[in-house]
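Ops channel
N.P.: pipeline sanity check, posting one input/output pair.
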């Protein structure tokens, strides 16, 4: 399923705004309180967190993999996939799904979070679910023994709700919207600055007068980054766009390798193009 949510870090004294008129005729349900006990797994160098991806076990729910989609502002847009399994280790299917991001590195527990959650559901008069508003008091510990705590407000849209409803609700939060420059998952906040470092593949900015090396690097990095992020969606097999975008990235990289052939190591480029052609054909078959 698709998850679209905004996350706001607020003080303990922050009071929730009146949302009664945020969406015409919508109703804010009764508060439901519960405690979530979560364990997060990642590689030693936090490859998943740095890509914005999480692998989580929650008591009573099992494992959840969250894969990022392109998003902007305060909205965190992710694909959410659930798996059965005990707390000890993520299921093989879950790890395979994010294999393009971990690239074979061993995955282990990196953070433990305990969240006291108060949630309210926003519904229309006909019962249609619009969003869920949650007020979370989070206590977390990282793999190095560091502990942290914070209060986070989440506004999560229902899967088929209109994007504009999220904007209408957030408008009522006023200055609290400016607390975060970008949405950050809870586990990433607990893990700290190491989890907020750039991912393995960064697309550098081109200078005003780039060299051939800089042009090649930007072109290849752009395709590699897109491919790595689209492969989980392609492996999931529920969104044709994921397959299409992964194939587009592979074809673009293959084309760039051909264009820049005189400037590249011939053996390395030829081997990579062979691998890319195999991937392009395989993704084409799935698409068709």
């Amino acid at each position: 399923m698709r998850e679209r949510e905004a996350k706001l870090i607020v003080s303990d004294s922050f009071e929730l705004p009146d949302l009664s008129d945020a969406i015409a005729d919508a109703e804010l349900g009764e508060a439901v309180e519960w405690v979530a006990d979560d364990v997060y797994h990642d590689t030693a160098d936090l490859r998943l967190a740095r890509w914005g991806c999480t692998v989580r076990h929650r008591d009573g729910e099992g494992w959840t993999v969250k894969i990022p989609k392109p998003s902007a502002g305060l909205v965190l847009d992710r694909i959410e996939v659930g798996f059965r399994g005990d707390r000890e280790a993520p299921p093989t299917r879950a790890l395979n799904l994010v294999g393009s991001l971990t690239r074979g590195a061993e995955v282990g527990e990196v953070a433990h979070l305990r969240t006291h959650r108060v949630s309210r559901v926003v519904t229309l008069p006909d019962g249609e679910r619009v969003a869920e508003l949650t007020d979370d008091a989070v206590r977390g510990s990282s793999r190095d023994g560091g502990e942290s705590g914070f209060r986070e407000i989440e506004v999560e849209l229902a899967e088929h709700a209109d994007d504009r409803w999220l904007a209408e609700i957030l408008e009522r939060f006023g200055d609290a919207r400016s607390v975060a420059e970008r949405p950050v998952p809870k586990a990433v906040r607990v893990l700290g600055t190491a989890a907020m470092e750039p991912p393995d593949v960064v697309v550098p900015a081109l200078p005003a007068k780039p060299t051939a090396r800089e042009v090649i690097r930007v072109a290849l990095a752009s395709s590699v980054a897109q491919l790595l992020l689209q492969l989980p969606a392609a492996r999931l097999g529920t969104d044709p766009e994921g397959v299409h975008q992964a194939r587009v990235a592979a074809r673009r990289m293959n084309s760039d390798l051909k264009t820049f052939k005189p400037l590249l190591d011939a053996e390395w480029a030829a081997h990579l193009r062979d691998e890319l052609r195999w991937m392009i054909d395989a993704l084409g078959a799935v698409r068709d």
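N.P.: looks fine end to end. The chain has eight helices and nine strands.
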